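Our consortium's second objective concerns turning raw sequence data into structural hypotheses that experimental partners can test. To show how far this objective has progressed, the report includes one record in full. It was chosen at random from the queue rather than selected for favorable results. The single chain below, 117 residues long, was entered without modification.
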Amino acid sequence: MAPITGTIHEVKMVGDTKGYRFEPANFSVKQGDGAKFVVVTGGPHNVAFDPATVPADVRDQLNANMGTDKMGDFSSNMKMNAGESITVSFGKIKPGQYPYHCVPHLALGMKGVITVQ
């Protein structure tokens, strides 16, 4: 896992009467930043990247940058309770757009795009 050397951006994972969503869903980071996804309501939630959207030369690094708390490649474990979190490093990740989603709530539109600058 490449270390986080920059800003850690906090993203809320929410499920309520308005729907299931990341807040913010779309945001930008710099190479070396991190994203901390925090359960607010409506778990279980997780963070996953579709392997088909990850460039081949980034796959191994992004997968490693998700740490060891995973249920599979490009997919974090489920988090149930408010305050639980998942942190992803964008160290050594080349600029580009990286779509992500919550596996159990993808059909409900819980997805977004992280742009690495």
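The partners drew two points from this record. The radius of gyration is 13 Å. Strands lie at 8-16, 19-23, 26-29, 34-39, 48-49, 70-72, 75-76, 85-89, 96-101, 111-116. Both points have been shared with the crystallography group to help prioritize constructs.
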